[in-house]
Amino acid sequence: MTDLTERLWYGRGPLLWPLLPFSWLYRAVASWRRNRLTASAEPLPVPVVVVGNITVGGTGKSPLTAWLASHFREQGWRPVILSRGYGGKRSGDTPLRVNSDTDPAEAGDEPVMLATQTGCPVVVHPQRLTSARMALQQGLGNLFLCDDGLQHYALARDVEIAVFDGARGVGNGVSLPAGPLREPVGRLQDVDLVVVNGLPGKRVPEHPRRYAMTLQPAGVRHLLTGVTHDPGPWLQGRKCMALAGIGNPGRFFDQLRDLGAQVEGRAFPDHHRYTEQDIATGNGLPVLMTAKDAVKIQPFAHDRCWVLDVAPQLPSGFGAAVDRALARKLAVRGLDASSLRET
């Protein structure tokens, strides 16, 4: 996504109006595809929870996925995270089991980050149904948690959670390519919960089960040694270079500035493959990055590389709302959550 495209998508200008016929075509094809794949999707013998969005770009899906993995483990489930592995260049038809030592160039940055953060089994394959079948055969867990799989309709799901960036919302409200929507706003009528990352603006749709999420700084961690500092005192007044290859780099830079840092920001495309030159500085400043970027920079990191770790903060009732939605959906399928947790 280029800066110009982003400004047009999330602005009110008319410059993309010539693309509207293509947006109508995209919307029609997306609707046809959803109906066709949903009708033929075969339910799995274990629960499937999908975290995704109806817009293009970063919304905070992966931090929420990590939070849900921890929540489900506390409830007695053994979650397995399924991912497309965007940015990875894995080859072959066999799903890839990911751990903290897996090369992000092969698996993608987010799967390696999630494996490191959660300790859960993470499986990567373009077809998540293929990954799910392998995980079932190997007995890896009893609940599937899909990171960014809202439009992957070949995989039947029980609970859908849509995530929004509070500041961006649905942008101009138009489907690709004239706007940022993967699916129309009406799609939210079918999702179970909506999570808004940050303060919701006017462009965030209403939903009866809408919850606010904030990504709170948890620590500034030295990438090589793991030494961690309280982010507020450590960053206050400190000059630093910050880099981000995520869906919304500006949000990361603003977060550092809110903590008192004097930031020179370098934005890269989402899932960018870093090189040593990308983190080279001639001024001796510390280099701040996200956890997602850190897994790719780790092999050639220098002594001035630091990671801002964040922790999702959600309302106290959110976890219970997820559990209720899951129990309702399982009951419709004639399945009992307590029995499944014992498998």
Topology of this structure?
Blueprint: H1 3-9, H2 20-40, E1 48-52, H3 61-74, E2 79-83, E3 96-98, H4 104-107, H5 109-118, E4 122-124, H6 128-137, E5 143-147, E6 159-165, E7 193-197, E8 210-222, E9 228-229, H7 231-235, E10 239-244, H8 249-258, E11 262-267, E12 287-289, H9 291-297, E13 305-313, H10 318-332, H11 337-341
Parallel strand pairs: 1-5, 1-6, 2-4, 2-5, 6-7, 7-8, 10-11, 10-12, 12-13
Antiparallel strand pairs: 3-4, 8-9, 8-13
Helix pairs in contact: 3-5, 5-9
Give an overview in words.
This protein is an alpha/beta fold and 343 residues long. The protein has two domains: 3-213 and 314-341, Rossmann fold, CATH 3.40.50; 216-313. The protein is 31% helix and 21% strand. It is built from eleven helices and 13 strands. It has helices at 3-9, 20-40, 61-74, 104-107, 109-118, 128-137, 231-235, 249-258, 291-297, 318-332, 337-341; strands spanning 48-52, 79-83, 96-98, 122-124, 143-147, 159-165, 193-197, 210-222, 228-229, 239-244, 262-267, 287-289, 305-313. Helix 9 links the parallel strand 12 (287-289) and strand 13. The chain is globular. The protein starts with a helix and ends with a helix.
